[in-house]
Design goal:
alpha+beta, single chain, 6 helices
């Protein structure tokens, strides 16, 4: 059996290190846009959807949903697009 004491949830990781939490976030465009706006970035929902459709930011398809990688969006907004694809 596996020991549950050594298992960390994503929420616990996010609370212990804010830099780790940025790497875990993936969500649909509305949620990602709201989080970016809350973090102080001036971005619109239309822009995020357009960048996702153009392939400028990472997108994962899960059924009918398109999940956007939050770190990829932040890297794109900060101008570090080459780091976004690593």
């Amino acid at each position: 059996m596996f020991d549950q004491k050594n298992v960390w949830s994503v929420r616990e990781l996010q609370q212990t290190n804010s830099e780790i939490s940025r790497r875990f976030k993936s969500a649909i465009a509305t949620r990602v846009t709201a989080q970016a706006q809350q973090d102080g970035y001036d971005v619109t929902l239309y822009a995020v959807r357009r960048w996702a459709a153009q392939g400028a930011i990472k997108v994962t398809h899960a059924g009918r949903k398109k999940l956007i990688n939050y770190q990829s969006l932040i890297d794109y907004l900060e101008g570090a697009t080459e780091r976004a694809w690593c």
